[in-house]
Amino acid sequence: MARPLPVARIVAPRSVAVVGASDDVGKFGGRVIHYLQKHGFPGRLLPINPNRATIRGLPAYPRVSAVPEPPDVAILAVPAATLEAQIADCAAAGVGACIIITGKLAEAGPEGAALQDRVLAIARRAGMRLVGPNCLGIFNPVGRAMLSSSLALEEENYAPGSIGLVSQSGALMGTLLSFGRHHGARFSCCVSVGNQADLGLEDFLEHLVADEATRAIGLYIEGLREPARFRASLHAARAAGKPVFIVKAGRSEAGAQAARSHTASLAGAFPAFEAICRDAGAVVMEDPQAMVLACDAAVRLPRWPAPGLGLAPIASSGGSTVTFADMMPGVGLRIARMAPETRAVLGRWMPDSHVALPVDTGSFHEGTSGDGLAECIRAFMADPDVGAVVVPMTTQPDMAGRTALFPPLAREGGKPLLYLMTAGAVGDASRAVMRAADFPFYDRMADALAVARALDAAAAGRVAGDAPLRPAGTGPASALPSGVLTEGEAKRLLAAYGLPVTREAAAATADQAVAAARTIGFPVVLKGVSRAVVHKSDLGLVRLNLRDEDALRTAFADIIAALDHAAPGAAEGCVVQEMARGEAELFLGATHDPQFGPMVIVGAGGILVEFLQDVRMAPAPVSAATARALIEGLRVAPLLHGLRGRPPADIDAAAAALERLSWLAADLGPRLVELDVNPLILRAAGQGAIAVDARATLKKEETP
């Protein structure tokens, strides 16, 4: 058996056979050979058609096995009924790889899936690789190998570039190629992987990471076959300095609302996917077109200096700049804070009362001028709090002439300049100026905002986080039961990893509860215990701040009655706990994702955790610095730093608890179904944190 053809040779073959070739460009095979010729394929083209002697001026062959030498790649655009025989012929001929455009296989039902399995088996016996089936092939502008039937190839002159793209949707890939070309984006290699019977997204991602021509990578993903390999490739891309921008289809989880715990509700497939991408420095986006624009900006614009910097909008339209500024907070961006030196420059061109961001150059003393605009942009480029300058241009005299100012200013200043042409077709001359200058432009404010947000996130992902180091006194816990743990059992598990938990004692009777409270010290908390109950407070099974014995006895009777009603036959009495107070509450969670392994979650705590959806997730274990960064990334983080005279909360203690919880998750591995700590009460800075409630579900430990 010959050694399998490497991916680099598949995307840049020296010879290509087109099975189903035709002179009719209305047919798949006709378009494939037409596009290969149109875009200047430099290798040998081999049309395969038993009914023709020549096709498009080339000698035709009745079958692939009749070709004098085995082609590197065969492209098959044939009916599904003939596919198996054609694949067998390719295998017999020694073809290196087949690109199968043919659809109606595994995606069409059991019969199609069986056919796909047979085709794959034939290929594997011969050492022949497959791309697809149900794909639209490969676009390689660098090697002029347009191995596809996509109508996007009707466009002229796909110049080689530096954007690599892998898509699990063929039609979307063609659309993105055409969309990118409109904006001046240029691609190195684009691959539609289809059903991924053999080669898949992970294979081509590895190729793009290693490919010298590729400088930024875009991925449209519907599902992963090899999550660990995918994750490793993202880390390799970061090490290679190649930003990766991703759109993931299927973000929602219909079953999440029925989850039995906060962790299960919040840790769906998409949040876990997003967490491992963020951990590897990749940026997850919502819009595939914005993803292409972000890739293009990463390639053609100066690099975003550092994460968290502000934007400086400037234009001759107050309406456009203010509207843009109003939209920024919704995507997590902010207006820059001008340095005194920047203010001084602006003050030379406009009244002091108008020196502010966003800048309306219509307020210049003598109206908008090219010199004033250029000097202000240079000042912004030098301002340490400015990450990028944004120019949202509206209709005005000499738009094209004014547009020509911006590319040199951006290159001189060394920071991104996002040029936004909002004027529709009347702005085409300005767009032409940008294309001629090899500079990106945007037609919509939403696109420019998405690109700015993506570049800022990519800047944050450029540097790998600290390697996690196991803290002293972290487990492992022994003799853990399987199934749903009681709060006490879950807290013992937490304590084994050094997480601080409340003092407590079990009580089967009111007298035992009183005795426990005397030992712990009033005021106390009383909780009902049952493995059948998830959220105790929802059922009236939690009583806080019980200050004396009478209040405790009354609460005990009420809770026992509520337990008998909520979980008949499953009640396990009550537990008495110390009454903990603090400055803030967080939620901590841990789980084992079936694709990505152990994960930890932190979010706003208390009864509103699922309602607020203010959470961050990361693969476990995490370092102390990463744990703190996750907490600081929450929307409630400003509250933790103190508000309206309240002291700041002990974020360091919360980060330490999250770090320790991450090692618990890593050690338990697949045994851990879910674990909630809610709330973790944060005392004032320097005074620690304490877990006041916990719940966990464990699988039975597998015996070797």
From TrEMBL:
Keyword Lyase: no
One term of GO molecular function: ligase activity
Keywords (A to Z) from UniProt: ATP-binding, Ligase, Nucleotide-binding, Tricarboxylic acid cycle
Keyword Plastid: no
Pfam families in UniProt: ATP-grasp_5 (PF13549), CoA_binding_2 (PF13380), Succ_CoA_lig (PF13607)
Domain of life assignment: Bacteria
Recorded coiled-coil stretches: none
Domain spans labelled ATP-grasp: 491-527
UniProt-listed InterPro entries: ATP-grasp (IPR011761), ATP_grasp_subdomain_1 (IPR013815), CoA-bd (IPR003781), NAD(P)-bd_dom_sf (IPR036291), Succ_CoA_lig_flav_dom (IPR032875), Succinyl-CoA_synth-like (IPR016102)
Protein name as annotated: Acetate--CoA ligase family protein
